[in-house]
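Handout for the seminar on molecular recognition.
Each group receives one record of this type.
Step one: identify the two inputs.
Step two: read the structure output and locate the region that could contact S-adenosylmethionine.
Step three: write two sentences on what you found, then compare them with the reference statements printed after the record.
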Amino acid sequence: MIATIEHVINNSIENDYSKSISIEHRKKFAQFFTPFPIADAMSKWILGNDQLKSVLEPAFGLGIFSRAILNHKKDVYIKGFEVDDTIFDNAKKHFENTENVNILLQDYMYNDWKNKYDGIICNPPYFKFHNYDNKNILKEIETNLKCKLNGFTNLYTLFLLKSIHQLSKNGRCAYIVPSEFLNSDYGKLVKKHLIKSKTLRHVIVIDFEENVFDDALTTASIILCANDNLTQRVKFSNIQSLQDLSKIDNIITNYPNLSDAKQVYDFSELNPEIKWKAYYQKQNSIKFKNLVPFSTYARVVRGIATGSNEFFTFSSSKAKEYNIDEQHLLPCICSAKDVKRAFFNLQDFEELKQNDKSVFLLNAQNSTDKNVNSYIRKGEGEEINKRFLTASRKPWYSLEKRPPSPIWVSVFNRNGLRFIRNEANISNLTSYHCVYLKESGLFSEIDVDLFFAYLLTDTAKLIFQDQAREYGNGLQKFEPNDLNKAMILNLNCLDNDSVKKILDFYKLYKQGINCIDEIDKILIKNFKMV
Ligand SMILES: C[S@@+](CC[C@H](N)C(=O)[O-])C[C@H]1O[C@@H](n2cnc3c(N)ncnc32)[C@H](O)[C@@H]1O
């Protein structure tokens, strides 16, 4: 038993808990703990409200924020919410001698809507969900906040919206959340709300080399809000290391004044529809002239989603085992790592096939073949037909209609986007997106080789970078629409001589000579702003 819990100003309690509990349990409840120095910096924002009497910790865990606050100020009343009874029992024991902390074993999203607080501080759980599995929460939000949410979101944004609603006059709120919502479609509504409520004051993007949260693959941002009328401006800051946390101290001490006017925007200047990385990250596209949206030349669509790769994918030996003839199988790239080079041709496909890689999908629609039928019955025995995707298809084993695309692009990347020229003309699963060139339109038509040569360059990667979603540890993801909305150089502005030179280098590259740098040089000469 610990008598003075507020003096535990490190992560020892969280570390002991993590050692004693399985990772599965922690994942189930999204139990990733805030490093104490970050919790302490956030607590200073809350403590900056000189009328601070009541504090809410909506996702209590082991009360790291309560400890940080109590360490600086003892006479506050704190209420905490927690849904997991294991961590709740643990926290209760630690805080049993701290009378002004009241922890409730209740779901924050369904309780306490009527109460207001002078300070709300939180590292909320991150769970993606669609409206079909969490209709009730969305309804709760819609009724109380009078705003309509779209089908896909993440629980942490809903926690944030609710907390902003629960701020008393001059109340302050500090949240640490994945940066994802700043740059994703589901974040638009939250950003709209942050602007409309005029409560957003600071967005502090944490760009640490290492992950902030031990096991969660995510980058984080600290969102500071205040329900006062002291300013109309929002500042974006970037911090690269724990040492940089002193920047937050500065921001807090000087509030509402700003020590510098860099990355500061009026509410009227903030656009909820765009990726907010434009406000805190240097945009590479501004270094170039004559840019057009990628969608001018091509369209990106996600690869085939089967609903059960285990059931639908086939290697040669699996086809043999179930006596499935190749005429019922669709050649398909099933794993991103099976493609090693920028060109994928029929010979590469044959090689994968010989090596017994999964390179086929069951293509059973309209088949009367008895072996195919018995494989389908086997799938039904395993209830593959009742999965989310298969249940909505007719028949359940039909494949999405998606013709092979001439170019693939990798979804997850560590070193910039990877484009592949699909010379084998085969299909692909979701580890690659399909890139289809637009064939109509007077101005939009483009030679596939010229286009692909461009996609291989560092210049193209640099400009695409503006649209990437960061996942921490250098991992980046691109959704199809991130690419459709990305900018590319307008290759139609090139003169015939430059086009010819690019195509000549491209031919050499195909023969194994690494001369992409030369193509970059031509692009820089033609498009770089001076
Ligand atoms: C990301 S952890 C943060 C814990 C702690 N506040 C910290 O920062 O170290 C989120 C916590 O919220 C709890 N939780 C998950 N869903 C919840 C809900 N709907 N209502 C209240 N707590 C919830 C989890 O069990 C977990 O302890």
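Reference statements: Residues 496-510 form the longest helix (15 residues). The CA atoms of residues 45 and 419 lie 45 Å apart.
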